[in-house]
Amino acid sequence: MVPMSNGLNALNGQVVRCRLCPRLVAWREEVARTKRASFANDEYWGRPLPGFGDPRARVLVLGLAPAAHGGNRTGRIFTGDRSGDWLFRALHRAGYANQPTSVDARDGLELEDCYVCAAVRCAPPANRPTPQERDNCLPYLVRELEILARVSVIVCLGSFAWDAALRAIGGVRPKPRFGHLAQAQAGGFTLLGSYHPSQQNTFTGRLTEAMLDEAFVRARDLSSGHT
Asked: Which residues of 147-186 are buried (b: 16+ CB within 10 A; e: fewer)?
């Protein structure tokens, strides 16, 4: 058997080199060249983003895609943007992260019993991947779920991630409906829905910190019976 970390390293190398989606390649690289004024002195990552976290995790957190000036800039998923600020504070409060902040890939953040990745690995224009782009990325998630053999709970941040997880697992009929704290059994996994910590949700109060905390308390309870 290939050690778990070796399998992840090989997969992550494939992810970083991926150029399957011409529209996403062009966009991520254009953003990295032009930059946002407030990050003018930063060297942007400008490539696809691999997952990040504990190879022995029981909980996998699945997002939509990297932010153009967040992960696409810093080189780590959910790092350097406001959605990530919410996510990593919640993971810290739940005991999954050693610190509540995530500003760049060298800031010392470590995850325990948790792995974070996205359904689409490149930053998409207007944060909206096409169905083809979603499907091009799907094998990476399938492979992650194979390598991360201890994962039993998938926390899906938003309906896009929920649908991607169901596609990756396959054979789930009828299709379970997404909602905050929605639960569904799919293959050997429990899917747990949470509204995405996007500014659209957090600024309007659709998602509160207490709601996000509840999702990770539920995730820990669900995963605690698996070793």
From this structure: bbebbbbbbbbbbbbbebbbebbeebeeebebebeeebeb
Which helix or strand (DSSP H or E) is residue 93 part of?
A: helix 82-93
What is the token pair recorded at 149?
Answer: 């053999």
CATH node for 4-223: 3.40.470.10
Query: Has residue 2 got a pLDDT over 90?
Result: no
Distance CA 136, CA 63 (A): 16
Q: Are the beta carbons of 124 and 136 closer than 8 angstroms?
A: no
| pLDDT for position 227 | 41
Single pTM value for the model: 0.95
What residues does 156 pair with on adjacent strands? 62, 193
The residue ranges of every structural domain in the chain are: 4-223
Strand arrangement, sheet containing 59-63:
52-53, 114-118, 59-63, 153-157, 189-194, 183-186
Mean pLDDT over all residues of the chain?
95
The β-bridge relationship of strands 114-118 and 52-53 is antiparallel
What band does 173 get if pLDDT is binned at 50, 70 and 90? confident
Q: Identify whether the C-beta of residue 98 lies closer than 8 Å to the C-beta of residue 110.
A: yes
